[in-house]
Design brief:
Elements: E1 3-7, H1 10-15, H2 17-24, E2 29-34, E3 37-39, H3 41-46, H4 48-62, H5 70-85, E4 93-97, E5 112-116, H6 120-126, H7 136-152, E6 155-158, H8 161-171, E7 178-180, E8 201-205, H9 214-227, E9 232-236, E10 247-251, H10 256-265, E11 268-271, H11 280-287, E12 292-295, H12 300-303, E13 310-313, H13 318-329, H14 332-348, H15 352-364
Parallel strand pairs: 1-2, 1-4, 4-5, 5-6, 6-7, 8-9, 8-11, 9-10, 11-12, 12-13
Antiparallel strand pairs: 2-3
Helix pairs in contact: 2-15, 9-13
């Protein structure tokens, strides 16, 4: 593969930049088309800090202004195609990030693939705020065009087997062109240092409190404190109020180094989400050897192998979550074992090098 053009919204291209940099090692050049501009990798790197801050500030509004309707899907697809056609040096292949529009609409002489963490059918089933259609007809029309985008693509790179099943069952996509690739710890290099346990600190990312099950975490922690009086709960990404005794809120963690230190101070990460397609936060924790307790929803059970490198809560109740927290924090040998196996899974599977290799192998096979 000589020239690859990555297309998609800036927020997603920023998030998966390390993956594209790995892919760039195996092709002649890899560029980005964000909105109406084409960026080299270095330019995207220079804008990374600014973009990250803007993304954080805008994120509560972002989901409510994405313009999810059939006309917007077509309009954005045509606009991106027009910009691709205007490039003086056209790509050999286009990799489009996520399924909110297509990189082509009228002509398909350049092959393209799509990287997906979810589908609208899954959103409609599992988290309706991500499916903001006024009526059923609008949803049906959107899925029709979403299906066309998938059918016209040469490859679909799904982060989870759950997404692969949705593509097959809800969209009629041939299994042969779907490759399950997983995801990785965003911007966190592979950790090779030591990981110690014993301070009973629990970490929870509450950036979208209800969706991520913040209420369940707080209820469970109150039960944990009755048994483990030294246990502490640290919440990041959300200015939660009325916290129980032993819980603190640190808000947004601004730097990778600060986040790294927080992981190393943590005995256990909770990801008891009602919906979370394939959370990189869990992979980031595993990279630093922090065992995670996750819900059985979406792709989380594909990241955490229950009883091996973490635990899966099913059904998702505060009582069962509290029980699992108490048992695991009280078993240092189990924590150490899960820690080592978490790091091993990140080292061998859930990293951008392994995912880039899968994508490039699929492209070279065509």
């Amino acid at each position: 593969m000589k020239k690859i053009l990555v297309t998609g919204d800036a927020v997603f291209l920023r998030r998966y930049k390390p993956l594209f940099e790995e892919m760039a090692r195996e092709c002649k050049d890899l560029n980005y088309l964000i909105g109406d501009q084409r960026f080299e990798i270095d330019i995207l790197n220079q804008a990374a800090k600014i973009l990250n801050k803007l993304i954080y500030l805008a994120s509560p509004l972002y989901a409510n202004r994405r313009g999810k309707n059939a006309l917007a899907f077509i309009s954005k697809s045509k606009r991106v195609e027009r910009k691709i056609r205007q490039l003086s040096d056209p790509p050999d292949y286009v990799l489009h990030i996520f399924g909110t529009y297509s990189p082509f609409w009228d002509k398909f002489d350049i092959p393209y693939g799509m990287l997906l963490d979810y589908t609208m059918s899954l959103a409609h089933k599992n988290w309706t705020p991500w499916c903001p259609f006024a009526n059923t007809q609008q949803l049906v029309e959107w899925i029709k065009y979403e299906r066309l985008a998938y059918q016209r693509s040469q490859h679909i790179f799904a982060m989870s087997n759950l997404v692969k099943s949705s593509l097959i069952d809800n969209y009629g996509i041939e299994p042969e062109k779907i490759c399950v690739v997983g995801s990785f710890a965003n911007n966190h290099p592979l950790y090779k240092g030591e990981k110690n346990f014993g301070n009973q600190q629990i970490l929870f990312n509450g950036s979208e409190f209800e969706r991520k099950g913040g209420d369940i975490v707080l209820a469970a922690f109150q039960q944990v404190k009755e048994v483990l009086q030294e246990a502490k709960l640290t919440i990041i990404g959300k200015n939660a109020k009325n916290l129980p005794n032993g819980a603190e809120n640190r808000g947004r963690i601004a730097s990778l180094e600060a986040m790294r230190q927080l992981f190393l101070e943590t005995d256990l990460v909770l990801a008891s989400a009602r919906c979370d397609p394939f959370p990189s936060f869990v992979i980031e924790a595993m990279n630093y050897g922090v065992p995670c307790i996750v819900s059985s929803n979406d792709g989380m059970p594909e990241i955490v192998d229950d009883g091996i490198n973490g635990l899966v809560v099913d059904p998702l109740t505060a009582e069962l979550l509290a029980e699992k927290i108490i048992n695991l924090l009280g078993d240092r040998a189990k924590l150490n074992s899960m820690s080592a196996l978490s790091r091993q899974k990140v080292k061998t599977q859930l990293n951008c090098q392994a995912i880039a290799k899968k994508i490039m192998q699929a492209l070279s096979a065509k």
